TrEMBL record:
TPR repeats by residue range: 237-270
Keyword Cytoplasm carried by entry: no
Pfam families: TPR_2
Alphabetical keyword list: Membrane, Repeat, TPR repeat, Transmembrane, Transmembrane helix
Domain of life of the source: Bacteria
Classification via Gene3D superfamilies: Tetratricopeptide repeat domain (1.25.40.10)
Keyword Transmembrane: yes
Residue intervals passing through the bilayer: 389-411
The protein, known as: Uncharacterized protein
Cross-referenced PROSITE patterns: TPR (PS50005)
Species this protein is from: Roseivirga seohaensis
Length: 442
């Protein structure tokens, strides 16, 4: 989260918690904390927020206690002290829930931050649980205050939060649960014409296909996003990288390099440093597999220069392993250094990967995707047949209608003839009966 967003967050809290009019002493302390953080003085920022919380606590001002604790949590996030951030956000949530009136928007924001922290610690199940609670809170918020939510652009939360929840479920190995959410987002976003949500859902469905080695379907998903100019460049870049990864697994290094190169060019212009790191990581792997260790090292060391905060990103530690392997042929000392870095951080990462490997939920959901794709193909084929043969079909329908009409006329005519014949027979029988009676009377 950019530091400048901190001021917006505080102002939002201030307005929603009713802090209007003259700025209070507590507000000054909180704003001073953000100023100190912008000046790279986190320790001073913490002191300001502690004082703000102490004053709010003495006055029994629960709302301002939430503001102070949320600010402490934000400072922890900014300096990557996720443990303290988690404690402070948890405290903020606890105080908020004890308030007479629970501010739904702030509750939702706090829950999202708690989910993000849990994800950083690779506790994906708990992260998914927080996102689920945030989503349920968002639904209540939108239902109670629809105009406010629309005015503030908060309706997107009803799409974003399920998506984030699905990502955490996928990371925890719950591919079936994650996939069902993604399939729903796919159908809903396609119906609504929401290209952003559609692109995100298709990207993730492609990743699941890639994990199942269903490369053709994975490439179809990625290609739809990568070559759709109506989708933002950052998302297209992710799809291009995924497309390159699929070709790398197929052994087509030339196409893999083409898509990695295009993805990196887009990301340098439009994406975050972390996102560029991920592409450079894959790009270096490609160079290494081509047998070009020097080029691979250049890509990986450029990645570390671009984004060096990987101590809080366990999934990125593999770069140390790759650098160790590459330097073994060139510089034993550097190889040993990177090897030590890899060894000291890899255990947790390996545990996470082991839990997800060969997950039956992944196989089950892959089948579910196939069923949906098959159903969509059948519908598409039916529509194509209708478009191609509708004149002939219409002619056949009209002919059948014409024949049925004339057949109905024929049946009606025959029925009338039979009725008339029956009437004549009845009349003749009645007349004969009368004549017979007259004869008897004579």
């Amino acid at each position: 989260m950019p530091k400048t967003q901190g001021f917006i967050f505080v102002l939002l809290l201030t307005f929603t918690l009713g802090l209007r009019g003259q700025v209070s002493e507590i507000d000054n302390l909180v704003n001073s904390a953000y100023s100190a953080l912008d000046d790279d003085k986190p320790t001073i920022a913490v002191d300001f927020t502690k004082e703000a919380f102490s004053l709010a606590f003495k006055r029994g001002d629960t709302y301002r206690m939430v503001v102070a604790k949320s600010t402490m949590g934000y400072i922890g996030m900014a300096v990557r002290d996720y443990e303290s951030a988690y404690i402070n956000y948890s405290d903020a949530l606890s105080y908020l829930q004890k308030s007479d009136t629970v501010d739904l928007f702030n509750k939702m924001a706090i829950l999202q931050n708690l989910a993000l922290i849990k994800s950083k610690y690779s506790d994906y199940k708990m992260a998914a649980a927080f996102y689920k609670e945030a989503y349920e809170t968002a639904r209540v918020y939108v239902r109670r205050y629809p105009e406010l939510a629309k005015q503030n652009g908060d309706l997107s939360l009803l799409v974003d939060l399920p998506y984030f929840m699905a990502m955490q479920m996928k990371n925890s190995g719950d591919y079936t649960g994650a996939g069902e959410i993604l399939l729903n987002l796919w159908e809903e976003s396609e119906f609504k014409g929401d290209t952003v949500s559609l692109a995100r859902a298709l990207n993730q469905l492609g990743i699941i296909k890639l994990a199942n080695k269903d490369y053709l379907e994975a490439q179809n998903f990625f290609s739809y996003v990568a070559f759709n100019n109506g989708i933002d460049p950052d998302t297209r870049a992710i799809a291009l990288q995924n497309l390159g990864a699929s070709y790398l697994r197929l052994g087509n290094l030339e196409k893999a390099e083409k898509w990695y190169s295009e993805a990196l060019a887009l990301k340098i212009e439009h994406s975050s440093a972390r996102s560029q790191f991920v592409t450079l990581l894959d790009y270096g792997e490609l160079e290494y597999k081509k047998g070009n260790s020097t080029a691979a090292i250049e890509k990986w060391e450029l990645a570390l220069k671009t984004f060096d905060k990987i101590e809080a990103e366990p999934d990125l530690f593999m770069i140390y392993d790759w650098l160790q392997k590459a330097y073994l042929q060139i510089d034993i000392t550097k190889a040993a250094r990177y090897g030590d870095l890899y060894t000291s951080n890899i255990r947790n990462w390996m545990d996470i990967q082991r839990n997800q490997k060969d997950n039956p939920s992944l196989q089950a959901f892959n089948t579910r995707i196939d069923q949906v794709l098959s159903s969509r193909r059948e519908k598409a084929e039916q529509l194509a047949l209708i478009k191609e043969y509708w004149p002939l079909g219409l002619g056949v329908v009209l002919l059948l209608t014409f024949l049925l009409y004339h057949f109905q006329l024929f049946l009606t005519k025959q029925r009338r003839i039979l009725i008339e014949k029956r009437v004549r027979e009845v009349r003749a029988a009645k007349a004969q009966e009368i004549l017979d009676k007259i004869r008897r009377d004579l």
